[in-house]
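dumping the sequnces here before i forget
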Amino acid sequence: MNLILPRSWFHISIVTAILAAVLLLTLALGISMGSSQMDIQPFIRTLMGGEGADLTLHAIIWKIRFPRVLMAAMVGATLSLGGLVFQALLRNPLAEPYILGISGGAAIGGIIGILLNLSRFPGVCATAFTGSMATLFLVVVISSGRAMLAKDSILLSGVILNAFCSAVITFLVSLVQDSKLHTIIFWLMGDLSQSDLRHVGYLAIVLLPCFLLVFCMSHIMNLLLMGKNLAHSMGVRVKVSSLILVIVTSFMVSVTVSYCGLIGFVGLVMPHLLRMMLGPDHRILVPACILGGGAYMVLCDLLARTLPQSGEIPTGVITAMIGAPLFIYLLKRSNP
Amino acid sequence: MNTALCVENISHQYEKTDILKKVSFKVKQGSFCIIIGPNGSGKTTLLKTIAGMEKSKEGYISILGRNLKTYAIRELAKILAYVPQTASLDFPFSVFDVVRMGRSPHLGVLGNERESDIEIVQKAMVFTDIEHLAKRKMNCLSGGESQRVNIARAICQEPQIILLDEPTASLDLGHQTRIMDLMAKLKTDRGMTIIMISHDINLAALYGDQILILKEGEIVSQGAPKDVITYETIETTYECIVLVDESPLGGHPRVTLVPEKYGRKKESLAKK
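..and the predicted 3d for all of it:
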């Protein structure tokens, strides 16, 4: 008998390579197009330099679009990875940082940070992280604490807290004076337009080690899917591993929320889509979600920038508008 | 023969009610121990305590002559495997994926297998007769099939002791015997120690070397089937009327339920 041979590494590298190529392609697309110019020719001319180079376009490409697409890629990667991790931890394909209230908590923290005139990094990041950890703590307390991994109670208390967070956010927004109102509302809807290269750098320094850590725990996530007793019997320290994963993920999500506000559905759509295509093995899904989530977000952001005739739509609106119907379609089409 | 498992004075409380009260017993290496008892008597808690999933404040458990508390969790996973009653899985893992997870305690953190690991996985699948299911999804299996997959996964851990929580529950007669024969074969072929919870006293009598009767967190009786499975102990443990005779196969004790229309009234039990 010759069954499927262990080609895990081979499989992981192939999938990673393909999705990395897709991500690069979308990044290139994201840089080459924008509201000021849709044609590819002036872009190439400017990129190559020499005759016909457009100095304004040059500045737009490198000062505005380049950091923005990188930011979008990192935010997308973080959010879809966050969804993947929470789905594994709660053994529920519907879990996601946004639905669990963790994004909402981070947003409350973020608004408080902005109202206190803190800098985005590390000030707002810290308040956002505090906010997300506070909601996470509440979620665990509400779902009775003992059964940390109980399937539905934790999701349900997340939904309740998310609703509560929305109320608090609206309350805070209603207190704000005019000058900050536009910033905060745009930020809340998921806004990538404030990106600059320095911030992208900070984000990369903070997020990349987190990505690596989650990848190192990807097989543990596979085992956790079998339930905490079985995971324990196969040598996983369930409590420690879950706690590490929860904290790392909440941290990543808070950091992105503090930069880009609330962007929902990425963490639901991408893990589902990729799981349907690639199977449930997290050793493949973790890199796939990082790269695929990044690519998806870059595309959504591109749509946000180019769809309207003037101005732009917040990216979070696009992800939700694509995400929600796609999610319903996925749910109807196949039982996961 | 050496002792595989030694449990001494294990007690366990859950929200101030005693689940286990000073339970003590020993299981010899390479023997088949079956724990029986009414619902809620603490059988599953006992099994989970042995597996290290529940911590007992009092008492002492030693596995292969070593204190359970001194084992690192991965170390324990190499000598002790656990098969739960039901393992639900909402994610589309294939049978092969699940069985190979059993190798994890022997592998690095990313669980990357060598050729030899895959051989072990294949052998376990042949042993449990599930190799034809390899590519099927876990959520499309019947009860008997998924139970065999779980046993194959446990075998892949290459343990010396396997703990099973009612592996034959809700299976039909044919599947029950196949699972039990499988466990008996693991015992004789590989010298594994099997510790199993069962609700079926007759299966326990047929296959067990040692029977443990648990009631309200205490061991009522333990020993060889013919010493333990008597009508007195069964009647007092389960509070029902039974008939115990010898099976024509090997003289194992055989329990027949006595419906009210055939026998003594239940009140006679209370008087005893």
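The first helix of chain A runs from residue 8 to 32.
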